[in-house]
Amino acid sequence: MNTSFDLTLQIVLTVLAGISAQVLAAYLKLPSIILLLIFGVSLGPDGIGLLNPKMLGVGLEVIVSLCVALILFEGGLSLELREVGKVSGSLRNLITLGTFITLLGGGMAAHWLGEFPWPIAFLYASLVVVTGPTVVTPLLRQVKVERKVGTLLEGEGVLIDPVGAILAVVVLDIILSGDTGLTFIVPGLLLRLSVGAAIGGLGGVLLGFFLKRAQFLSEELRNLVVLAGLWGLFGLAQSVRGESGLMAAVTAGIVVRSLSIPDERLLRRFKGQLTIFSVSVLFVLLAADLSIASVFELGRGSLLTVLALMLLIRPLNVWLCTWDSDLTWKQKTFLSWISPRGIVSASVASLFAILLTERGITGGDSIKALVFLTIMMTVLIQGLTARWLAQLLGLTSDSATGVVIVGCNPLGLMIGRLFKDRGESVVIIDTDEEACRSAEAEGFRVYISSALDANVLEDAGLSSIGTFLAITNNGEVNSVVADRAAAEFQPPRVFAVLPRETDTNNKPTSRDALLLPRLSVKTWNSYIKDNRYERGEIQLTQSQLEAQRDRLNKLIRNGDMIPLALQRDEKLDLALVNSDWRAGDRLTYLLHDPTPQLLKRLSGGRSPSRLAVEPLTKADKAAATAETAASTTVKTMAGAAAATAAAVDSPAEAGTDADGSEPNETGQGSDQNGADQNPSQNPSAVAADPQIDP
Length: 694
Fold this sequence. Notes:
Membrane topology: Multi-pass membrane protein
Structural class: alpha/beta
InterPro entries: Cation/H_exchanger_TM (IPR006153), Na+/solute_symporter_sf (IPR038770), NAD(P)-bd_dom_sf (IPR036291), RCK_N (IPR003148)
Protein name: Cation:proton antiporter
Number of helices: 29
Number of strands: 9
CATH architecture of the largest domain: Up-down Bundle
Strand content: 5-15%
Strand order of the largest sheet: 3-2-1-4-5
Number of domains: 2
Organism: Vasconcelosia minhoensis LEGE 07310
Shape: elongated
Largest sheet: 5 strands, parallel
CATH topology of the largest domain: Na+/H+ antiporter like fold
Distance between the termini: 93 Å
Helix content: 55-70%
GO molecular function: antiporter activity
């Protein structure tokens, strides 16, 4: 068996083990790093002995460096700059003051609890300053935490990685050189950060402008150009100043993202796939090189060191860095708990262990073991409890508010007003410029563009909004747009309005994630334009719940009613599909008003009532008299019109409705002349309009 075959077999086994661990983690819904560590240790020399990373020699260091650079570039490329700007103050503090707090606190804990010498203790602390996007991002995706908290954790993970890695190098230089003055520490750190930021920033600008102008490049070649450019910038920075390459990688990713290059979404997807591959390979290799005996030799003091890092130092760090922010105590509590360590800590610790051993300095294996113990404990404990804690604190994205509406039509605008009136964010997307300008004048945030453009959906803030609604006249467009939104942005609630007759049972799309209300958007838009509707609210009660459900569902099945929104526990959600309505819910609905226009003119006109609680008997009577309305003759209608005209006496006193009319005490609207629309005082109107209950 020759050496080349041995190396090939090592790489093949590493890739197979890494991807298998990722697949199993996805199936079990566990943090992938846990299984990657288990697979690596099991296959390593302390396990069954199939993997021996030492066979790679210096190649291991090369693989680690290039993969970490790729991981950090992808992290910078994925940063939501608009969202980061909202938490920039807290993020800045976590990167600067937070780094110092963790370095100082971690060093003291490792020395006093773990009984490490001061130099080794502070080297350990510098290695665990970082958190890392490779652990945080998948964790947040599983937890679905609200966007503000998620952005802060992701931003910290991306930006603190190069800072922590460079800090660790500076601390190592101090240990090796024996120079402990601040004049050595601060300039060394700032110089590497500055060189990396300058090279990464300039290179990112050049790379971004090239991609914008090189329209002849195919998608595949464009992605590879970015990969080559990234590694080129990393190598250049490393050659100018050692260990500045990581900062160059992060900066380049942030700059390329800010330039909005063509097909940026596809580039991020490609880099995301490479990142998963890199993390899988690195963790298996590094875990296989870990000595299990060295972990058990650490003793109870090292366990207490990690617990102090999790339970004392991290909370102190977060609360001091966010004391003057607008974060709530619940958000700060969640931030205090989530700080899993990842690939940067593991890779740098492994390289440092090798270097310290080569220099004859004891403690290299112990530091590596303690860092891996920190990774295992933080990922396992925090990863398994993060979702429970987020739900306990009410910080999951299921509670996210706001709505993105595709379709600037009367029905879409009416739904948008319900959310806008509650102070929630409403974004409307449509290609109809005139309709969008009108909506913009009404105070809506609009995008005059196709919703099939993922960049538009991203700019609309879909990643942080609770509801997505596609409600154009074209059901197929609604379906395609909603599929894309669900697949790429994972908002908690995705609605695609389909025509009533549509059959989607056999279509192979991701519809399991979609809510598919069935209604004729075109028909209801016509009703709204022609003022042939009544809008109201109904309070569901425990004593009548089943009867209320039956009556409402009958109206919905007949196409005479649309449930617009449901208010439950002070939270407003769309209710376009039949849901599990409960006692105490307040349902806002649209009811079709079939009164002929001639009768409306003769009776002085009808205006939709303002949002007010109406008795259920209105809906009940509408359902019960639907057949009567269908059989009403022209003669009867004419007689009703005459009776209505005779019944109009004097204006009713009330406040102004949405269109200038006034609701009376029963919640019914009044016409523009002030005539009372209460059917109990106008029996002929009831005969002509059976949808309205006396």
